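Subject: mismatched residue count in predicted assembly?

I count 567 residues in my input, but I want to confirm that the predicted structure covers every chain. Input:
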Amino acid sequence: MSSIISNETAPPAGTAHAHHGSGPLVWAAIVASTCLLLLVFQKVLWLVVPFLLALILYYFLYPPVRTLIYRGMSRDGAASLVTALFLALVAVAGIALVPRLASQMTQWQDTVARYVQGGMQLLDGSLRSLEGHWPTLARARLADTVAERLTHGAGSITDHLEPVALGIMAWTPSLLLAPFLAFFFLRDGRRFKRFLSAAVPNAFFEKTLFLLHEIDRTARAYFQGLINLTILDTVTLAAGLWLLGIPGPLALGLICAVLAWIPYVGSILGGLLVVLVAATDFPGDPAMAYWAIGLFGVVRLLDDFLYMPMTIGKSLELHPLVTVLMIFVGGAVAGISGLMLVLPVLGVVMVIGETFGVIVTDQRLMARHRHALALSREHASRDL
Amino acid sequence: MLTLFRQRTTSPRLERLHGLSLFVNLTPAELEIVDGLLHERSYLEGEVIFDEGEEGQAIYIIAAGEVLISRQEEIEADHAAQPGVNEHGAAYPRRRQGDTGLVARLGPGTFFGELALLDNSPRSAQARAATPCKLIVFFRDDFVSLLDTHARIASKISRQLACHLGARMRSMALAMSAHQHLV
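Triage response: the counts match. Full output below for your records.
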């Protein structure tokens, strides 16, 4: 019988299926496909963003669904119950928080204005200090010019609230898709996998099963890597801010770490936030803001060149250099959405590309497929 | 709410799975979990299911039809033992498996390629459909995740697998001793 026969014998000619590593052609196709997908995704962000959120939610809700299935509940029932509980929890949190947040809205507006003012004062003070050291800058009246442009260009906070509110209203319907998508992933994920694999010819079936498993593993590893990266960023920033004596280090660190999900742009926003807090809470000590900028720079470098390759890059089994290069390529091809999507898209395309490369270059598998097709034709025309 | 956890009635499909030796000890609830992991494939007579030397990814259970298990080197040995069959010596063309090189002919309810569940070593023989057949496929990584998430189910399957392998080893040992006795 197949199983108890020794595996030490060498495979016969024509049946040896050595797994060759992906060549430059396959890799070029992987990078090109990733760029093309990023361009397409940029056009359908209204669908891609809720889809991504739904995937995160799926990986978050899957463990309780699995536990319920093991306890004897059907998959449909478990998926429905867990999604309903999650939505109920969100609704309760919303009901509890929204009135409180609404009552503090006016106070928020004042707080934001105070921090913006603090940042403007820091910038003004720094520029005047530079003018004191550099007569050329003083003659150009740099501080006055920048202050004037910021006053005219920035406008009031109310001016900025309108587009933000409109943006939230425009995105809300598509973001509401996320929990529904997550529910269907939880309920029908396996059916979808079986549906896909059923369409694959017998000769490629095992390889396709492996491919689907690898895609699932890659996506899971990516989102787990993202969570690990957020924890590392939060801890490092919080420790640094705490050492500097800036108030609310943990909350600030967490907000900056979540903003860092958008590579570079999110980091700049996070840095700006920390500097504004430092400049406003320590108005007489501009050095504190400079220290905060320095700390943020160090954390960004750690994040981009150490933490990200260690967490997300490692989870995708990508070389750190490829991770960094692909982030730049993603940004150049599709802007902010490209920066956010490049690594998960590359991870999935990489698995598909490598498996496809293995199948196409395996002459035995292709021959088996042709043989199966010939048998099928023969079978179909047997009694004609 | 409690009705969600009540004992389920078994469907004909689950009844059929329960009849397979690998899943004979599973409860209906456990069978339903396993059923979610299984794939069903149809093969035509003469179609190769997997090749000798190929990396094994799954175990196959025969739901209907018959499957031939054969080894290439035994075919070659048979060729060498028959002068004039192939005068060119080494380069034998791959042949459809008949009686030559045949290791076993398996029928409904039996399974093959089970070592793929345990490791990813190359397949030690070729499997080919002897008649049009329907196979149930259990992917290795699904079995591995079952070990993590549903250890009870996985241990029941593993036990059946171990019993099956033990029986085969005993029959092989008996066959070898009988052969030595004759020599």
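Residues 10-182 of chain B form a domain with the Jelly Rolls fold (CATH 2.60.120.10). Marking this ticket as 'not a bug'.
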